[in-house]
Amino acid sequence: MEVADGVHRFGTRMVNWYLIERGGRLTLVDAGMRGYWPQLTDALRSLGRKVEEVEAVVLTHAHADHVGFAHQVKANSDAVIWVHERDAEPGLRRFPPFRLYLRPTAWPLLAHGLRNGLLATPDAAEVRTYTDGEVLEVPGRPRARHLPGHTRGNCALHLADASVVFSGDALVTFDPYRRRRGPRLLIKGVNEDNDQARASLDELAVLNARLLLPGHGEPWRDGVAAAVAEARRNGYW
Ligand SMILES: [Zn+2]
Ligand SMILES: [Zn+2]
Predict the structure, then answer these.
(1) Residue 171 and residue 151: Cα distance in Å, rounded?
(2) Residues 6+ away with beta carbon under 8 Å from 38
(3) CA pair distance 219, 75, nearest whole angstrom
(4) Are 29 and 66 in contact (CB under 8 A)?
(5) What is the number of the ligand closest to the CA of 63?
């Protein structure tokens, strides 16, 4: 589904990933879960494109539900996997603490993850790292904004020409662990540093864009600052 000019949203009710098409060139933002690979091949076919044409997979962070099929893209193309330098070590695949999945509200997410090969996400990968403020030399040229807390290297990606911010898991519009909707931070236990995650909202709020595309949940079309204000109203945890 095209959510902005040349920006397509895919995934499931649980997890999003995105495709940027600029000047006929392709960048992926996140790579869903491993089992979402057919979504990519179907999406590219419907756009008349091929996996070999993907030039970059830019990860907002290194959680396994965002690293997903990145390795498979790389194996089938010359694509470079990009991740913030602080999420590149020790490996490229992190899992939230398993105890989070013990809550009944998280069972559908757990079942979904198990069905979609979450635990089999490869760890090792050759990556290119990026830093805060960097304009990535990939199709679309998003600017990275380091918003640590969810993970130490979590970033938003700002596509100014399309008035789009990909917020990763710095702010979501659906928390699949608690099954709550609306702009918010994810459940406390999933963040590496909750205080930092809360503080990073201030940094997110200053990004000037109308459309916020989160790692989880529906697009938010009323501006990034309003999404942050709404997250604060929803309470942090
Ligand atoms: Zn995450
Ligand atoms: Zn996530």
Answers:
(1) 12
(2) none
(3) 30
(4) no
(5) 1
Alpha carbon 38 to its chain centroid, in Å, reads 18
Give distance in angstroms: CA of 126 to centre of ligand 2: 21
Task: Quote the ligand 2 centre to 101 CA distance (angstroms).
Answer: 14
Q: In terms of Cα–Cα distance, which of 87, 72, 13 is closest to 37?
A: 72
Q: What is the CATH number of the domain that holds 45?
A: 3.60.15.10
Report CA(92)–ligand 1 centroid distance (Å).
12
List average pLDDT for each run of 10 residues in the chain, which is 237 residues long: 96 97 97 98 97 98 96 97 94 88 94 95 90 98 98 97 97 97 96 96 98 98 98 87
Integer Cα distance of 69 and 37 in angstroms: 6
- Number of structural domains in the chain: 1
Residues 204, 95: Cα–Cα separation, whole Å: 24
Domain that holds residue 208: 2-233
What is the C-alpha R_g of the chain? Answer: 16
Of 21, 82, 74, residue with least CA distance to 51? 74
pLDDT of residue 89: 86
Residue 48 CA, ligand 1 centroid: distance in Å? 31
For residue 67, give the nearest of 88, 41, 97, 85 by alpha carbon.
88
CA 180 to ligand 2 center in whole angstroms: 14
